[in-house]
């Protein structure tokens, strides 16, 4: 399966980059993974809803330009569906068995995803009601895709 991971903003800290690189290396055994980073918008001085919506809109436009045609798009959204690790693995296997051989996973910036990106997604998933920094979420998502890949390959994984 081809997997595109679209994220907003660079990983500035070395420890985030190293964690992501480790999971990307592990995942290369199972999937063709491409990480696509789009620029984040500077946080507006005005933290009002209108200013935040504008930030999400601009980041969303950059994300939309990077979504491959015919890709099955999963956006990370706090209001999305929830899976445990086995359920997520099963879901990914079902998508592939239905002919979805190109998957796009999207992590928004610090203010989330634009309504346009959320509408374009085939589905939304959530990992928790907690709010995580988007840099950490990238590590968590890569780890869960790796775990799902091991489960689907019938390999042991840490429970």
UniProtKB/TrEMBL annotation:
Keyword Membrane (UniProt): no
GO biological process per UniProt: methylation
Catalysis performed (reactions): pseudouridine(1915) in 23S rRNA + S-adenosyl-L-methionine = N(3)-methylpseudouridine(1915) in 23S rRNA + S-adenosyl-L-homocysteine + H(+)
Keywords from the named record: Cytoplasm, Methyltransferase, rRNA processing, S-adenosyl-L-methionine, Transferase
Chain positions recorded as S-adenosyl-L-methionine binding sites: 76, 108
EC number(s) recorded for this UniProt protein: 2.1.1.177
InterPro entries named among the record's database cross-references: Alpha/beta_knot_MTases (IPR029028), RlmH-like (IPR003742), tRNA_m1G_MTases_N (IPR029026)
Presence of keyword Methyltransferase: yes
Subcellular location: Cytoplasm
Function summary: Specifically methylates the pseudouridine at position 1915 (m3Psi1915) in 23S rRNA.
HAMAP family on file: 23SrRNA_methyltr_H
Assembly and binders: Homodimer.
Family statement: Belongs to the RNA methyltransferase RlmH family.
Protein name, per record: Ribosomal RNA large subunit methyltransferase H
Gene: rlmH
